[in-house]
Every structure is written in structure tokens, then in C-alpha cells.
Amino acid sequence: MGSNVEAIEEFFRRRYGGDALVLPSGRLALYIAFREWLAPGDRILMSPVDDDVVFFTVLAAGLVPVLGPIDPDTGNLDPKAIDDATWSRLRAVLTTNLYGIPDAMEVLEERCHRHGLILFEDACQAFDTRVDGKRIGTFGTAAAFSLGKHLEIPGGVLVFPDSSRRDSLQRRAREALRTRPHSAVTAYKALTFLTAVGGPGWAPRWLGHLVGQGVLPSDRWRGHRMPYDEDAVRNAIAGGGGLDRFDHWVRMDDLPYRTPLPHVVLAAALHRLERFDEDRPRLLAGVQSLLDLGYIPPQIRIPRDTVLLRVPLFVEDRERVLAQLARRGHGIQCIYDPPLDEYAPAFAEQLPSPPSRRIWSRDVLPVNPRRADRFLALRQETPSLFRPIGADLSRAASRPTRAA
Ligand SMILES: Cc1ncc(COP(=O)(O)O)c(C=O)c1O
User: Fold this and answer.
1) Residue 178 and residue 257: Cα distance in Å, rounded?
2) Three-class HEC string of 368-399
3) 197 shares its domain with 296
4) What is the residue with the minimal CA distance to atom 8 of ligand 1?
5) Is 194 exposed, middle or buried (0-12, 13-18, 19+ CB in 10 A)?
6) Are both 128 and 192 inside the same structural domain?
7) Ligand 1 site-directed mutation target among 22, 27, 252, most atoms within 8 Å of CB
């Protein structure tokens, strides 16, 4: 096993420079980086169009999320819309690189330098993304990668240029690791798999019973965000934060997010990493076929030479489209609706953001380019259901929302 870990770390060192640490998940990589470079109470700028997991990881590290303005043309933070007084109250910035579309790295680098801020890169969705030839993951103090996203296998990697931090990061990782009973992890995975394949209610009753017993997470999802109890989150913050207090929300759908990776997973991860460049032309063709459909308003800036994690198409009546796709067994993930400022206003500071950013939550249909052929075939069956939102983002954003 040691040799697989070493080989994966060596892969990331070669690709990104600096040092690298293999971890069970991208979220654990983020958490450990926050703990290493920040202190509780520090304010961190992040995007409101981001995963709940990332938001709760920020809270677990004792930080205060400051939800910044969105650039409607990229779906990421708009650093030019933030004034100096706000920058000077921050301690750090966390990028998103939503769906693999790069953040405004040059501006962020400049602002972080000017105001003495730490720049963390969330590269979980951006394994193939570059800005002017420079890879996402090589700009900041630390970058978190998720093998679960681009390679569809559990695992995370933290990349950091300052290798003198390695011992300290490794110690933090050891402290955070927890081994869950394999029965619970296996039952949870089986339940997720059977539900995904057969639909809700298809899984054997005893598995559902295990969930009901609290062995496994029992939250039933409503919409696109995890439900949470505000008082429980408040208590976890008041109690001093940390992964144990925030475990329920940070683990979300990934029970083993801090369980050491088994040998078989590490070997498969290494194999997929080494094959990624070979697969790249096929993946790029999938991206291209989705970009060419005509569902992306012209002002939206999406790199054409990048294996995006998802290709964001913008459609009217998105919930109806999702329901139709789900009926045909085609699930769509990575929808961040409502944005975090509406999802958890009690736990974040908020900066004003233009109304047109709503399209990145309400209208976006993020399609996995690995499944482009399947998506194209389904769209062909009911083309009239898939209507683009049009070129005027402000008008699109001001449409009333139809109930899901
Ligand atoms: C933007 C982003 N960052 C980080 C993560 C965490 O990655 P992982 O699932 O490997 O913990 C996710 C997804 O969960 C994500 O969407």
C-alpha cells in the first residue's frame, strides 16, 4: 500500500510541483489545510455557489465564511467587485473553480498578495484546468483535489508548495482519521447503489432498517441541499467546532470521508491517474458535444480545451428537465441551489451579488461529459423539453421561479 500512496503523491508532485499528501477525501484535504494555516474566527472569502460539504467544512474549521459576489459570466467569485475595506477584514480566500471553469486567479493572486491573505485553491472540480497554461492547483498556499470527482473513485490529495509543512499536515491528518465499522460503510454503499439503480424503496428492507437505526445517515434530501437543524449547527459552533462535532454535515453522502483508503482503491486511483491523459481526447470530445448544443449564453466564459467536471447547460424549467432525466435513470449532480447565502444565512457574512448570478443555481443543468452520449440520446427523445434560457442573463434571472 505504501508504494501506491507514494506513487500517487509522486504523480501530484510532478504535475503540480511542491509536495503532496494522499487523504481519504477532498473535504478532509480542505479541512486539514484550514487548520494548518488559519485560526478559529478567521474570515474566509468563498463563493455562494458551492457545495454544502465545503461550507460545513469551513464551519467545522471554526472559520467565518464571507460569501462573495458572483461573476455571472463564470459562476465563480468576482474579486473585482470587492472593495478594499472588505479585503482588509479577510484572512483567506477559497476558490471554487466551479465545474472546472477557472476562478479569476490573476486578480485573486494580486489581491491576496496586496492584503496579506492566504489563498486556498479548491481544485476538486478542476483536475484538468489551466489559466494561461498554468495549472489550477499551482497558484495558492495549498490546493485540495478530489479523486472522487474527476476519477470517480474515493480519495483526496492536498498539494502544498512548502514541504516543510509536511510533518505538521501529516500529524493533523492522523488525528482526523477515523476507522468506521466496515459493515456500516458497506451497507451504506450498497443502499446508495441499489437506490441509484432501482429507485427509492428498491433496496432490501434490512438495509433501510440499518439506516433507520442511525447506523447510517438518515437524512432524506429535499431539493438540492442537505436539510440541517439550525440549533444543532449553532451548538456545534459554540462547542468549539471540529470534525467530530460537525461529522454529520461534513460527511453528508460520503460516510468514509475520513477512513483510510483500502489498498484496492489506492491501486485503482493510481491506475486512473496514469490513464487520464490517454482518456483526455475522448473526454474532450464529450465536453465539445455538449458545448455545441447551444445552451450556453454567449457571454459565459467556458474554456473549450479543458476536461470540465460538468458542462453547465442553462435551461428553462430546469426541475422538469431533471425529473424527466431521473425517470429515465439519468441522475444529475453538482447543483448548488439555493445559493449558500439563502441556504444558510445565519452562518455566513454576505456581500452583495448581482441577481443574474441566480442562473448558476436555478437554471443550470450540469451534465457529466463522461455520460454525454447518454444525455444526448435522452435529449433527442424529448427535444422540446430542453429550452435554452436565452442570451439576456438579467432577464433570465428575473423570471419567477416555478415550483419544483
Ligand atoms: C467544490 C467541491 N470541493 C470539495 C468537495 C469535496 O470533495 P470530496 O467529495 O472528495 O470530499 C466537493 C464535493 O464533495 C466539491 O463539490
Assistant:
1) 9
2) CHHHHHHHHHHHHHCHHHCCECCCCHHHHHHC
3) no
4) 26
5) middle
6) no
7) 27
Instruction: Return the SS3 of 201.
Output: coil
Domain match, 152 and 32 both? yes
- Of all protein residues, the one whose alpha carbon is nearest to atom 16 of ligand 1 is 51
Ligand 1 contact via 51 beta carbon (within 6 Å): yes
**Is 224 inside a domain boundary?**
no
Same domain, 76 and 162: yes
Q: What is the distance between the alpha carbons of residues 62 and 239, in angstroms, rounded to a whole number?
A: 10
pLDDT digits (tens, 9 = 90+) for 328-379: 999 999 999 999 999 999 999 999 999 999 999 999 999 999 999 999 999 9
For residues 76 and 103, membership in a common domain is answered with yes
Query: Which atom of ligand 1 lies nearest, measured to the CA of 254?
Result: 9
Check if 156 has its Cβ closer than 6 Å to any atom of ligand 1. yes
Nearest atom, ligand 1, residue 156 CA? 10
Q: Based on the domain organization, do 47 and 169 belong to the same domain?
A: yes
How many angstroms does the Cα of residue 254 sit away from the middle of ligand 1?
10
374-388 pLDDT, tens digit per residue, is 999 999 999 999 999
Pocket test for ligand 1, best of 31, 56, 149, 224 (most atoms within 8 A of CB): 149
pLDDT at 153 over 70: yes
Least confident among 161-175, 215-229, 258-272, 296-310: 215-229
Statement to judge: residues 114 and 202 lie in one domain: no
Phi, psi of 92 (to 5 degrees): -155, 165
Query: Would you say the CB of residue 365 lies under 6 angstroms from ligand 1?
Result: no
Last residue of a domain, one of 150, 176, 202: 176
Instruction: Decide whether any atom of ligand 1 lies within 6 Å of the 95 Cβ.
Output: no
CA proximity to 71, closest of 94, 104, 46, 93 = 104
Residues 187, 153 share a domain: no
What span, in angstroms and rounded, lies between the C-alpha atoms of 208 and 214?
10
Distance 223 CA to ligand 1 centre (A): 18
Q: What's the CATH code of the domain at 104?
A: 3.40.640.10
Listed residue (368, 234, 310, 317) closest to 49, CA to CA: 310
For the chain, how many structural domains are there in total?
A: 3
The CATH code of the domain that includes 391 is 3.90.1150.10
Distance 145 CA to ligand 1 centre (A): 8
Atom number, ligand 1, closest to the C-alpha of residue 97:
1
Q: Confirm whether 260 is domain-assigned.
A: no
